[in-house]
UniProtKB/TrEMBL annotation:
It comes from Clostridium chromiireducens. This is DUF624 domain-containing protein. Keywords: Membrane, Transmembrane, Transmembrane helix. The chain crosses the membrane at residues 12-41, 47-67, 99-118, 124-145, 166-186, 192-209.
């Protein structure tokens, strides 16, 4: 029996089950957002920006739990997916919510400013600067959720650390932007059902990208703990 569990086919099957379950759980957490997107596709004239903001709020904690679950799958290979996901969701709910609300509010402010300057003063080019700030914020958020899934760090330090690695790991940052662009293209070209699996695919890729970052942070923390006076 042990030989079966050690076979690659078991590991692959285990990954696939975990991938599907994680996708379903994220979809359950964001059912309001999914329904809003479906209704918007059916009836675009009824789109409401404030309603979108409200429906986006649950996305942060669920993404944090997804990062934690996928990270544990990669590290430990064999886990109880349901238990890990929901335990991570509850344990890190507040930290992920604070991180996400900070990012979501800033993105909303930038988006409103972008629309204003793009419509009223396009010749100034201010809307381009705001768009770049939005991209930086989004990409930094990708690092922040990944790091927050492994370490307990204060929000201010987490944001600074995310910006630091976003710049230091610039090739990885470019790869992440490319992955997001491809995901967006696929969403536009395929069924909305595919939307359910996009977060798991993206988080899995990003978790592999961030393995060296995790090691670097762990080594720094261990070094600081062993040399508190240095």
């Amino acid at each position: 029996m042990k030989e079966f569990y050690d076979k690659p086919i078991y590991a692959i099957t285990n990954y696939m089950i975990g991938f599907c379950l994680s996708s379903i759980y994220v979809a359950i957490c964001n059912i309001l957002l999914i329904l809003l997107l479906i209704l918007t596709v059916i009836s675009p004239e009824n789109f409401n920006f404030f309603l979108l903001f409200i429906c986006l709020i649950p996305l942060g904690p669920s993404l944090g739990a997804l990062y934690s679950t996928i990270g544990k799958i990669i590290r430990e290979k064999d886990i109880y997916f349901s238990s890990v996901f929901w335990n991570s969701y509850k344990k890190n709910f507040l930290s992920n919510l604070k991180l996400w609300l900070t990012e979501l509010i800033l993105i909303t402010i930038f988006f409103i400013d972008f629309r204003y300057f793009y419509v009223n003063m396009p010749q100034t080019g201010i809307h381009i600067i705001i768009a770049l700030l939005m991209i930086i914020l989004l990409v930094a958020g990708l690092y922040a959720f990944s790091i927050n899934s492994r370490f307990e760090i204060k929000l201010k330090d987490l944001l600074m650390l995310s910006l630091y690695f976003m710049i230091k790991k610039f090739p990885t940052t470019i790869l992440k932007i490319i992955v997001l662009a491809l995901a967006y293209y696929l969403l536009k070209s395929t069924s909305i059902v595919f939307l359910i699996f996009v977060p798991s695919i993206v988080c899995t890729i990003f978790t592999y990208y961030d393995k060296n970052i995790f090691l670097e942070i762990e080594n720094k923390f261990i070094s600081s703990a062993q040399n508190p006076l240095s």
